[in-house]
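Can you make up a polypeptide sequence alongside its tokenized fold?
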Amino acid sequence: MIVYLHGFRSSPQSNKARRLKAHMEALGFGHLFWCGQLPASPREAIALAEAQIASSATPVTVVGSSLGGYYATYLAEKHGLRAVPINPAVVAHLSLAEFVGPQTNLYTGEMFDFRPEYIDELRAIEAPKLSHPENFLLLAETGDEVLDYRQAVAKYAGCRQVVLEGGDHSFTRFGDYMDTILRFAGLRP
């Protein structure tokens, strides 16, 4: 099963979530894809993802974009899962500190409050060292204008990495790597 975790101010309507879901549906296993709307609270977002992981009858691979990559890393370490962080936030408690206050979901237009205590919640789930690098496949583009890809390359040293020149924070070549993700997850030969 793929548990897809979207990024900050994003939703299940994100381009990558919709494309991966459609791709899996076309292959006949769309029922093995889950992406829910993550709450603004990191603690609550993790609880929602953990409930989905616990209910899965098949092995789970967590795929996460940006902040979702930070969450995926924590969940993979805690539960011994495979994870595919895509242009991940590496030090989310630092990179998101400037966003404390009112925010707007980029897909739904819904307003939400990103509270100061959420920074502490992010700090509490940081995975400072990866105990099983073989469980990770990093996808990153050097042209990410939001996060420094070099932090991800250093964080996921020893892990399988696909680092592509150019692109941007959206990971522009996502379509080229959907089957790579599914193979890593054991869903494709």
In short: The longest strand covers residues 61-65. The CA atoms of residues 38 and 75 lie 14 Å apart.
